[in-house]
């Protein structure tokens, strides 16, 4: 009984300790994400708490992001990924349109072409926004990401101009809208913090 029991005890202790450290480590970061998402969803009724949590936690890097600054960069990169993917998706829809049997209504095709344009611009804008963000030019970054949020509403509104037309991009536009709003909220927090610091000097 003796040696075997103590070996077993030792193994259990090791397992407990390692699972404890695995469970305990990401905690502060989860708190940062939860607190940030709670604050955002409370101040902006267009951002859902669940969407915010799911998005920010979907990035493996977010688990080691201890600062709002890192979380902000993650949110902008998620946005970039979304916008890039949506642009490709619109291109594919337009390509399918060449197939006669699947031809869209000319109005829908026109809307899709407009969306392709605004999303292409948005991609370039986000790229510049990331540079601004990294250089802590939060004011400039705010201007750029505000235009990305406009891209999502411009695209969606196009389809809504005609009764009976259903936008094939509603979910994607909504995702882009919410991700931009999350990024903008974080940028404005960081900007306010910097301004406060400057005021102290
Ligand atoms: C969230 O809001 C609370 C209350 O205003 C504030 O104390 C906290 O610092 C905020 N947290 C983040 C991450 O913005
Ligand atoms: C929510 O979105 C709508 C539609 O884009 C906009 O008019 C409104 O100002 C937004 N609300 C907030 C709190 O940002
Ligand atoms: C866009 O981001 C949202 C939230 O992170 C995610 O659920 C969705 O799958 C993304 N969409 C694309 C097309 O990448
Ligand atoms: C995005 O979708 C959510 C859930 O369907 C909805 O509550 C929210 O109002 C939508 N936001 C916009 C800007 O359309």
From TrEMBL:
Coiled coil: none annotated. InterPro entries: Invertase/methylesterase_inhib, Pectinesterase_inhib_dom, Pla_a_1-like. Residues 28-186 form the Pectinesterase inhibitor domain. CDD domains: PMEI-Pla_a_1_like. Keywords: Disulfide bond, Signal. SUPFAM superfamilies: Plant invertase/pectin methylesterase inhibitor (SSF101148). It holds the Pfam family PMEI. Residues 1-24 form the signal peptide. Belongs to the PMEI family. This is Pectinesterase inhibitor domain-containing protein. It comes from Stylosanthes scabra.
């Amino acid at each position: 009984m003796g040696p075997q029991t103590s070996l077993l005890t030792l193994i259990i202790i090791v397992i407990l300790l390692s699972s404890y450290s695995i469970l305990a480590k990401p905690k502060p970061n989860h708190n940062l994400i939860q607190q940030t998402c709670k604050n955002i969803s409370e101040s902006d009724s267009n951002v859902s708490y669940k969407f915010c949590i799911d998005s920010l936690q979907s990035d493996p890097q977010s688990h080691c992001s201890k600062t709002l600054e890192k979380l902000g960069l993650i949110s902008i990169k998620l946005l970039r990924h979304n916008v890039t993917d949506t642009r490709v998706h619109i291109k594919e829809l337009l390509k399918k349109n060449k197939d006669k049997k699947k031809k869209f209504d000319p109005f829908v095709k026109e809307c899709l072409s407009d969306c392709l344009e605004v999303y292409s611009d948005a991609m370039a804008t986000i790229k510049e926004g990331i540079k601004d963000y990294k250089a802590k030019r939060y004011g400039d970054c705010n201007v750029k990401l505000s235009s990305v949020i406009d891209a999502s509403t411009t695209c969606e509104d196009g389809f809504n101009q005609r009764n009976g037309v259903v936008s094939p991009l509603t979910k994607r536009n909504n995702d882009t809208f919410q991700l931009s709003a999350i990024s903008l909220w974080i940028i404005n927090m960081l900007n306010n913090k910097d301004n406060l610091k400057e005021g102290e000097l």
